[in-house]
Amino acid sequence: MTESVNRHHDGRAERWRAHRLARRAEFVDAAFRAFDRLGPGAGMADIAREAGVAKPRLYRHFADRAALVAAVSERLSALVWEHLGPALREPAPMRVRVRESLRAYFAVVDEHPNVVRLVCRARSTDVVAGDRGAAAGAIASMFGEYLKVFGVTSAGTEPWAHGVVGAVEAASDWWLEHPAMTRDEIVDYLTTLVGGAIEAALRSEGVDLDPDEPLDLTGKERHGNRS
């Protein structure tokens, strides 16, 4: 009897938890839409109206506006990685991987400029710092793949990758305030910048890489293009 009651209680608790998580996700969606439409200055009252609830209802799920902004940052990060991940993993020449990655990132920036502005203002938060670290890690991994092909290892991949991420973030901030430049133009400029940085970093390790040459990244080492 006791075991049956406990199972019933656990089931109710799990359903209530699932309901709260679903409700929280709805509020994050509403906040994303509100910031997207009204800009980074949207307040809790604006978000509550977007969600169709009274403002106190939001505070049952988020301690304050900062907590809600952090959740929106996580949502934006997921959206960016949804676009960026396939491009970073694409088995293509280096220049193509760089261009497609930048194109994917700027597609999100272009579609949700106000949310990106909001997140840029919150760059000191742990969530945003973690996202930046994840992006740098992915780029460092891509760089490491090229080194591995030529039998080279380097401890400099992490700081180099963080520098690239910082440069792209700064460029996207600038572009949001200078919309006269088209998305394709900013992607082309940054492809040259980031691609050139990759080539220079590889050369510093004795690797001469043709940015338009497809490479076998399955782990088989090459030694023909070592400087």
TrEMBL record:
Coiled coil: none annotated. Residues 21-80 form the HTH tetR-type domain. PROSITE patterns: HTH_TETR_2. Residues 43-62 bind DNA. InterPro entries: Homeodomain-like_sf, HTH-type_TetR-like_transc_reg, HTH_TetR, Tet_transcr_reg_TetR-rel_C_sf, TetR_C_32. The keyword Cell inner membrane does not apply. Keywords: DNA-binding. Signal peptide: none annotated. GO terms for molecular function: DNA-binding transcription factor activity; transcription cis-regulatory region binding. This is TetR family transcriptional regulator. It comes from Prauserella shujinwangii.
